[in-house]
Amino acid sequence: MSYKVIARKYRPQTFAEIVGQQHVTRTLANAIESNRVAHAYIFSGVRGVGKTTAARILAKALNCVNGPTAQPDGTCDSCREISAGTSLDVLEIDAASNRGIDQIRELREMVRYAPASSRYKVVILDEAHQLTDEASNALLKTLEEPPERVVFILATTRAEDLVETIKSRAQLFQFRSLTFQEISGQIEKIVKAENLKIDSGAVAVLARAAEGSLRDGLSLLEQAMAYAGDDISDAQVRELLGVVAESVLDDLVGAIAEQSSERALGLVHRLIADGQNLQHFCREAIRHFRNLLVARVCGADSELVAAPRDERPRLAEHAARFSEEDLTRFFNVLLETDDDLRRKPDPRLHLELGLLRLVNAQRLAPLEEILGDLRGDQRPAKSSQTPQGALPRATASAQSVSVSSSGAAAVRMAPSPETKLSVAPSTAPERPVSNVPVPASPPRIIARAAEDGASGLASAQLDAVKAMLQSSRLLSSFLEHATRCEIDAGEFRLFFHAENRTLTEMLPREAMERLRTAVQEVVGQPLRVCVKLDSGRAGMGRSSELRARFEEDPIVRAMLEKFGGQISRVKRPGEE
Ligand SMILES: Nc1ncnc2c1ncn2[C@@H]1O[C@H](COP(=O)(O)OP(=O)(O)OP(=O)(O)O)[C@@H](O)[C@H]1O
Ligand SMILES: [Mg+2]
Ligand SMILES: [Zn+2]
User: Fold this and answer.
1) 209/409: higher pLDDT
2) CB under 8 Å to 207, separation ≥6 — which residues?
3) Which of 25-39, 160-174, 338-352, 406-420 has the lowest mean pLDDT?
């Protein structure tokens, strides 16, 4: 028995067998039946979705002994030769390696003569967008005076790169990417035909990894067969493709739902201990949250959810834990994290920061909305991309308020009676609506109430350091988490809450060095930069200090301004 790769062995032989491209196959079949076949076609679409397959079936349909027919028999000499790639009248040319003028001239010569033994000559030009300009022009001449009984099929993954004059002389068919369902359905069919056993989870992993290309899906299946034999398990396929286990995603969802930074950081730790690729994990998380978002918006049964039936209840359950806005926000944060992971060194750090942002995203949300509002932002708040450029400092502070201090809780809980930050219920709406533009009056400056001059000075210097390091997202976000700072005995001490310990441990050496230089520049003398943890709630500073910090906070200030309120009391988290 000769060995044939799965993708070739299961190449469709009739239009009806082609999955997911009915808009193309039906039109072609009609054209053949009504004897209106064009001189030139462009088959455009991503890799592995059936372009070459459809081109060969079209050739068979034209040349079948019973043809032209939309249902070639597949058994006559002509059909068999075409399937085997030995037909003299069906030329398959890879334009990527035959892109020059000479090849096209030859081709023109060839198509001059009548077909040898068939009704039509069919020229399939693969990767047609790779032709040189000269070759394109030569081809164009041929298309302008199309020889009798010649059909050109230009297959390309980039129709937009074809010259306009060629496009205008051909009929364009856009092949679409295949859906998760179509790919998993096809994998299951083939698995059955091959008498293999496979977990439905494994099929799902393969179908997802195929990213719309059936050929890719089948190649992956083939790899899985080589790896696992004829009983393919979910775990084996995940191992093979380096895909994280669903339980890790469950954990991530749990950490976010519970808003537990600790769980989130523990998860990164575990991924590293297991030797997982962090970027890969991030992509999986994006995929998962995309599914959750779709499940939330369209229901878990929707076609658009890329998951097998038996995983859907779990998706529905995850999705129900968050609002649509939250899920959109998570999705955006993950996309940004993925970008960071791709472009910047130190993946661990960026994944940790990304997950911390996810954990805090729900708390941040109302602040972002209010900020958007204060900016007179026209963009709906739920798009919630981290505002970049417009108000970078304010955004960074939003994080500091919510992540590192009791402020976030205070602001978030504003409308409740036990509000920590009470907001005068003046004419302001109950809940700020983001798309009402607000006159851009500068927030009223509230006198700084720092009790002792030294810490006031230090905090002013910290502000100056922050301003200098604004361009570094890493350092800005690090500094925004500092609860206070002091200068003493040749040291510039930055304090953090104990819960932010990991954050303080993950600053790379160069960043620390940069921070030291900035401090020296601001203070005017070299100081050692020390990172300290506040021992606990008791060590968090007097409430007057806390109050002073909030009075200075640009967000709190802006809120007071906007709602016409005043701070009545500042409490620490957990304080009654
Ligand atoms: N729509 C489809 N229906 C059924 N099988 C398909 C389909 N698309 C791809 N396949 C499978 O993938 C293999 C490759 O498909 P094909 O060569 O037609 O892709 P293509 O679109 O020409 O890709 P490329 O752009 O890489 O040339 C086929 O042999 C078949 O097994
Ligand atoms: Mg092809
Ligand atoms: Zn035939």
Assistant:
1) 209
2) 180, 183, 184, 187, 217, 306
3) 406-420
C-alpha 80 – ligand 1 centre gap (Å): 19
Residue tagged 């209106």 (tokens): 36
Structure tokens at 455: 């810490």
Structure tokens at 284: 């999986």
Q: State the residue range of the domain holding 228.
A: 180-241
Q: Is 173 in the pocket of ligand 1 (CB under 6 A)?
A: no
Q: Of the candidates 154, 92, 94, which has an alpha carbon nearest to the alpha carbon of residue 121?
A: 92
Q: Is residue 398 part of a domain?
A: no
Gap between the Cα atoms of 33 and 17, Å rounded: 18
Query: Do 186 and 144 lie in a common domain?
Result: no
Spatial CB neighbours of 148, under 8 Å, sequence gap ≥ 6: 114
Ligand 1 close to Cβ of residue 404 (< 6 A): no
Domain shared by 497 and 413, yes or no? yes
Q: Each residue of 526-541: pLDDT tens digit?
A: 888 888 877 644 444 5
**CB contact burial 134-168 (16+ within 10 A = b; e otherwise):** ebbebbeebbeeeeebbbbbbbbbebeebeeebbe
| 496 belongs to a structural domain | yes
In the DSSP assignment, the letter for residue 540 is G
Pairing status of strand 484-488 against strand 491-496: antiparallel
The total domain count for the chain is 4
Distance of CA 325 to the CA centre of its chain: 17
Cα distances (Å, whole numbers) of residue 230 to 99, 200, 206:
42, 14, 15
Q: Considering every ligand atom shown, identify the ligand nearest to the alpha carbon of residue 56 and give its number.
A: 1
For the entire predicted model, the pTM comes to 0.60
